[in-house]
Amino acid sequence: MEKRQQILEGASKVVSERGLHRLTLDAVAKECGMSKAGLIHHFPNKEALITAMNDQVAARFAGSIENAYEQEPSYNKAYLKGSMKELNSSDLLNVSNSLLAAIATNPELIQPWNEAYKEMDEKMKQDGVSDELASVVRLVSDGLWFANMFDLQPLSEQEQDHIKHYLFTLIEKEKDR
Question: For the HTH tetR-type domain, which residue ranges apply (predicted)?
């Protein structure tokens, strides 16, 4: 594994296992079995590390949606599929840890997400469904993330699948009009 990737995953592991308040360059260096100087060679400060975490995860999230869109004629359906794929991923470096680290450190660090969301929102609203339904699809997906992120009665994968199919039905009904 590339050192840079190892550091990003180490930072995510610190957040998930020890908490946001423990995310320091020293803790990440220790987690990765390297010196702080070695870590600073790749990421000069905590904000650079968190920015890189969010850049990578936002790009992977958008990529999951685009991959689903290649097989699915509806961007809204692809958004749901890609979101749920990422939500249920076992990747150590994930949306929850990167977003929480950004918000806790400097809310400006979520900028990669703002840009990705703006682009995805435009695609969802140009998909042949009402703006309202496109917003519902996005907000339901975000709600699933929120429930998982804060362990607030998260839905099982089976329950998520039922929600996805229900929304697919609504999307198809609107597209058929």
Answer: 1-61
Continuous segment of H or E residues that includes residue 60: helix 46-71
* 101-111: average pLDDT: 91
CB atoms within 10 A of CB 18: 13
Residue 1 has pLDDT above 80, yes or no: no
Predicted local confidence at residue 80, as pLDDT: 96
- Interatomic CA distance for residues 166 and 164, integer angstroms: 5
What digits encode the pLDDT tens for the residues 155-165? Answer: 999 999 999 99
Spell 88-99 as b/e; 16+ CB within 10 A means b. Answer: eeeeebbbbbbb
Nearest to residue 110, comparing CAs of 151, 57, 51?
A: 51
Length of the chain measured in residues: 177
Report the distance separating Cα 117 and Cα 64, nearest Å. 14
Residue ranges and CATH numbers for the domains of the chain are 3-176 (1.10.357.10)
pLDDT in tens, 43-67: 999 999 999 999 999 999 999 999 9
Measured from the Cβ of residue 67, the count of other Cβ atoms closer than 10 Å reads 14
Which residue, chain included where needed, has tokens 């249920």? 88
